[in-house]
Amino acid sequence: xxxxxxxxxxxxxxxxxxxxxxxxxxxxxxxxxxxxxxxxxxxxxxxxxxxxxxxxxxxxxxxxxxxxxxxxxxxxxxxxxxxxxxxxxxxxxxxxxxxxxxxxxxxxxxxxxxxxxxxxxxxxxxxxxxxxxxxxxxxxxxxxxxxxxxxxxxxxxxxxxxxxxxxxxxxxxxxxxxxxxxxxx
Length: 185
Ligand SMILES: [Zn+2]
Description:
It is built from eight helices and six strands. It has 185 residues and is an alpha/beta fold. The protein has one domain: 2-Layer Sandwich (Zincin-like).
């Protein structure tokens, strides 16, 4: 039994090892939902860092206005939910559709790294850049955003680890983290 599981894991790892950057470009381009993009994020972290976790939920909420700019998302430390800021998401989809998916990838990757226990902000941003280069190469928009976030989103800021919204009404995104069991081990 254990051997079968090990073989299954080895097979999965091998399959993932041969994925090229082209595959990641295609995966992101063909992703249709937030859940699809999260699968791309998880695979990217697995490919690049061999780290994963399951059991996460995604919520959408209005995270309000902040003096320094807008938050893309936040992760309440110790929880199992990533909360994306709904208003900028909708605005970017309408006004800058070409950057919509790279933006989501960037934001979810950042928060996913927090859920893996990386809480240092500058460390996480550095990892986001390294992973983006690993899976997409240098020229991709997701890498561009990671390199120079302000160039693409001059108001985007990242909440500190202890930040909490005033009002936490959120809707849960169905089908998020559907592959959660496949990487546990
Ligand atoms: Zn952060």
